Predict the structure of SoxR reducing system RseC family protein.
Amino acid sequence: MIEEVAKIIRVQNGMVVVETQLKTACGSCQANKNCGTSTIAKAFANKTHELCIETDEHFVIGQYVKIGVPEESILRASLYLYLYPILALIFSAVCLQFALPDIQELFVIIFSIFSASLSYIYISKKLKLITKESNFSPVILGLSDTIAVLPSSEIPSKTIE
């Protein structure tokens, strides 16, 4: 289960709207001051994302909860979004090349990109329907002990004597 801490911002009938903080891995290495990726990550830092989660439990606005999504659902969605369009691209290029061996490469490339785009559109629509399944939806695991995860630069450290 992939877990994240979220803040409850709205409570509705059987639904809780939570807000999560988007985090990046940048800022934790020693090249932080000289890294272009770190600079770009700081520009997009402190972004939030809202999620609606169905629950029968009673929560109060402002509480921090731990939410989770099963790993297998993330892997399955990644498989759909990344692998299938690539397979459609390769399969369409090979099939067109065998069906019409004298065709120019430019037409094969255009057709392959078109078929990969169609498969991506189809799969993204399918994933929107699948996300309504319970195993794709985030669940509230319980109240959180901490309010936020501190960046490594703010974690207090002790020296060992």
